[in-house]
From TrEMBL:
<protein>
    <recommendedName>
        <fullName>VOC domain-containing protein</fullName>
    </recommendedName>
</protein>
<dbReference type="InterPro" id="IPR029068">
    <property type="entry name" value="Glyas_Bleomycin-R_OHBP_Dase"/>
</dbReference>
């Protein structure tokens, strides 16, 4: 199940405000302040720390079966998408990724698989990454632009099945063009990083 995407962005506060306006809530904020990583989780808000020189490593937001994360970057950069998989499928996909000579990074919380298209794929087995895997509020599809063709074929080889949740197009940069979601009322439609949200 597709559940997640992550960006690096200079527009950290603006990105949080965009998703909050659409009903997605802040789960956690972790940032580097005065040389140490610290949490700035709710109920703290931006009025309390906006003027501090915090470099946010991650802001995690959730609603239903949706998990969106972002952190500070000097420029907008799409980093990865995430899929929920079973423990068994996780191992199968990892084995296939290694056979395909893709870079694999495994830790206790999640696994990342590198792609030749400039972004990574996260495999997630922990159920607490979202509020509810069975929620009607979910990411149905992502339209991803890459600089070269072949993303759909790579996903089919990696997962050993078609992945209709990913719509692949070729463009001048690698990014998410559209996120098609369900069971949410949109008040704003284009996030500060250029992702257009649609309801299905």
């Amino acid at each position: 199940m597709l559940f997640h995407y992550h960006f690096w962005t200079p527009f950290v506060e603006e990105t949080e405000e965009f998703y909050k306006a659409n009903g997605v809530y802040v789960y956690q904020r972790i940032g580097k302040y005065q040389g140490d990583f610290q949490t700035f989780n709710p109920p703290q808000d931006w009025e309390e720390f906006r003027n501090k020189k915090i470099i946010f490593r991650i802001i995690e937001m959730k609603k239903g079966a949706i998990n969106i994360t972002f952190g500070y970057g000097k420029k907008i950069m799409f980093d990865h998408i995430g899929f929920f998989v079973s423990d068994e499928d996780n191992q199968k996909i990892l084995n296939k990724a290694r056979k395909m000579n893709l870079n694999v990074q495994v830790n206790e919380r999640r696994t990342f698989i590198g792609t030749p298209f400039g972004f990574r794929i996260e495999l997630q087995t922990h159920h607490d990454a979202v509020e509810s895997e069975n929620s009607l509020t979910k990411i149905n599809k992502l339209e991803i632009s890459t600089k070269s063709d072949g993303l759909s074929k790579l996903l089919m080889n990696l997962f050993e099945e078609d992945i209709p949740q990913i719509i692949s197009t070729v463009g001048n940069k690698t990014t998410i063009l559209r996120a098609i979601i369900s069971n949410i009322k949109l008040k704003k439609t284009v996030d500060p990083n250029g992702v257009k949200l649609y309801i299905e």
